[in-house]
Structures are given as C-alpha cells and as structure tokens.
Design goal:
Helix content is 23%, strand content 41%. With 191 residues, it is of the alpha+beta class.
C-alpha cells in the first residue's frame, strides 16, 4: 500500500486543527471553572466578611478585634452594623461560633440589664449574623447587625460582655457552657 504525500499532509493538518480545538476548549473550561470558584468564594465572604476588610487582624494575643476601647454607638430605634474579627486560640475547633452581647450595666447607675445567656431573645442587644465553624488557630470575620432588643436599653452609656459562643444556627440554641472568647465593650445608645 502506498501513501500519497497529499493524504499524509491532509492528515497532519487535520491533527493540528483537532489539537488546537482541544486546547482551546480546555482553556475555556478552566476559565469558566475559575470564574465559578471565585463567585462562590465571594458569596461566602459577603456573608461572613473578609480578613482584608478589617483594620486589625485578630491574633492569639488579641482574639477579638473590630471594637475600639471607646466602643461603638447603637442608634435607639435603628440597626448598627459591625465587622468583628475572631481568632480561635483554643486547642480544639470552634463549631457554630456566634456572637452575643448578653450582660450590660449602665455606665451612670451601675444597674445591670441582663438576660439568660442560653436564650439570645432575652439579651438587651440582639445580634444578628451567621455562625461559623472556626478551626484551631484560624480567624474569621463576622458581619453583624445589632439592635436594641425591644428598647431594653434607654439612651446612655453601657458596659457589656461580648462573647463568642457555640450555637446551633437553625434552632438558635446557645451552649452557654462553651464560651470561646469574651470581651468587655462600651456601647453608647443614642437617640
């Protein structure tokens, strides 16, 4: 059997075209996969927040960041937004980590305004946000909305405990015995 030069050349050109098309399709597939992965990652960061979005990164020395010594203002009948950094310095992972403000004292009278730690609906300040599973020696940013719970706090300065605790997001049941970290914060309720 004899091969003609024209047939051999034709076969080579077809093989080159197939290779070029295959690599082009591979490139398009990788590009689309990368776009989908980035889109999913951005969606998660918007719910929880990104460590790049906060000024001070949480560390083992300062595991809760995002609140200055002066605290923050809480409008009387409005919602306040807060980005809070948390670093798990514990020896184990922190599943279902969520933020609560559960015990406040008036800065003027010293009278406590408290609620049941295990029941977030009784706290003077309701904290709305997504819980997160935080691995050992990992950090996360919580994007939170805070609201004066049924106007429990009158206008003025309060000193409160902010705690990162274990919770079940679906049932809102808080494991009051598993507090990952606590910090005292100043909250100025303004009318």
């Amino acid at each position: 059997m004899r091969w003609s030069k024209k047939a051999a050349l034709n076969l080579s050109v077809e093989a080159i075209i197939i290779f070029v098309l295959a690599f082009a399709m591979l490139g398009v597939g990788l590009f689309i996969t990368d776009l989908l992965r980035e889109g999913a990652g951005e969606g998660i960061e918007k719910v929880l927040g990104s460590l790049d979005d906060i000024e001070e990164k949480p560390t083992s020395v300062k595991p809760i960041t995002g609140i200055t010594k002066e605290g923050f203002n809480l409008p009387f009948n409005k919602v306040a937004k807060l980005s809070l950094g948390f670093y798990n310095k514990g020896n184990t992972p922190a599943p279902g980590a969520t933020v609560l403000i559960h015990y406040c004292k008036s800065g003027e009278t010293g009278v406590p305004v408290s609620g049941n730690l295990a029941d977030p609906t009784t706290h003077p300040i309701r904290v709305y946000g997504i819980s997160a599973d935080v691995g050992q020696s990992e950090a996360v940013v919580f994007e939170l909305s805070l609201q004066n719970n049924d106007d429990a706090l009158a206008g003025g300065l309060y000193f409160c405990k902010l705690s990162v605790v274990e919770s079940d997001e679906e049932t809102e049941v808080v494991n009051a015995e598993n507090i990952y970290e606590q910090k005292q914060v100043a909250i100025n309720v303004v009318s």
